[in-house]
Amino acid sequence: MATTAQAIPAHIPSERVRECRLFDREITYDNPYDAVIPQIHAGPDIFYARNVLQGPVPGWVIRRAADIRAIYNDTENFYKQGNTQLASLIGEDWDIIPTELDPPRHSGFRTALNPGFSPAKMAALDGRVRERARHYVDRFKDKGRCEFVKDFAIPFPVTIFLDLLDFPLAEIDQFLEWENILLRSNDNGSRAITVRAVKTYLLKAIADRKKNPGDDLISKTLQLEVDGRRWTDEEVFGHCMNLYLGGLDTVTANLGLHFHHLATHAEDQEMLRAQPSKVVVAIEELLRAYPAVTTLRICRNPYTLDGVTIMPGDYVAMSTPLAGRDPDLYDQPNEVRLDRKPSHLTLGFGIHRCLGQHLARRELQIAMQEFLAAIPSFSIEPGFRVPFFLGNVIHVEQLRLVW
């Protein structure tokens, strides 16, 4: 996946062009948090790679958390509209809401959405979340083993997401197939077909909720207002696409990474088993140490960083996996200390901080509490090599656990 000369614009200094395995969109059996990220932090503060987005699309990679935080806040020089390229893949220009919105348009939509995703609203889901966690753990707890990703990390959060949108659980495999193509494939033809399929499905669901409103997130979004008017169908679709992309992947990725850590660090596992109240604090350190997601910004005005100039139209990778292991910010960043209580960028920062952060945290906390309460000391199946997927969402493909 070396950077090709054809992909390099004239304003990019040749000495700043580097390979970046972090976005290779392939399987590795080396833990990237040990083998890839520390190597990047040994290099320059900013460099240019050919594969920051599917396509592949080239762009700048920034390694320091302070610089990433500054760009998160700089809506004058960097914007998000169109950064996923999903609408443009099918020749359209709708926005994923609120992810692809910029100020001042962003504020009205985010203000309308925030109450529905408040800590209190998400806390009200605790009973459902805990019941779902116990349901999946009960299915394998007496077997002495599980394939954690397939048996728990996927169905647990994804079925909660489907419940919230009142989508049939029987269609989970189709939803996951579409999501896999959208977020991992470099085949833009397949991705365009999938965007159209997801859009058709979501618009049909929106039309149904208009006729038969319920208590689901789509029905609630149809009641929201912005600038004194109800949202259009296209705007509701844009928000549903945001829920779809976020709801089917990120918590699953975090669960796989967190439980891989516990399976390979018996002392941490046993401490949390003995003191389950410490799970809440521990999750923040695990989020800091194992961030999964890299999003993108697009440069609006010339912007100088570390002696190089990012030019208008350049893509910039906002990599939380790099931010979470930044040696300029954290003492011994590659050491996981569950009592660290870190601040981190894993769930975003500023106006685009993750809309579903409160639900994500509760899902992670409850999953760990319920799993540790029901399952004795576990480890990775002897001889099993854990496959990590490198890309804009790092995740564990399979995790065979035994106890």
Automatic annotation (TrEMBL):
Superkingdom of origin: Bacteria
GO molecular function list: heme binding; iron ion binding; monooxygenase activity; oxidoreductase activity, acting on paired donors, with incorporation or reduction of molecular oxygen
Known CDD domains for this protein? P450cam-like
Which family does the record claim for this protein?
Answer: Belongs to the cytochrome P450 family.
- Name of the molecule in the record: Cytochrome
- Species the sequence originates in: Sphingobium baderi
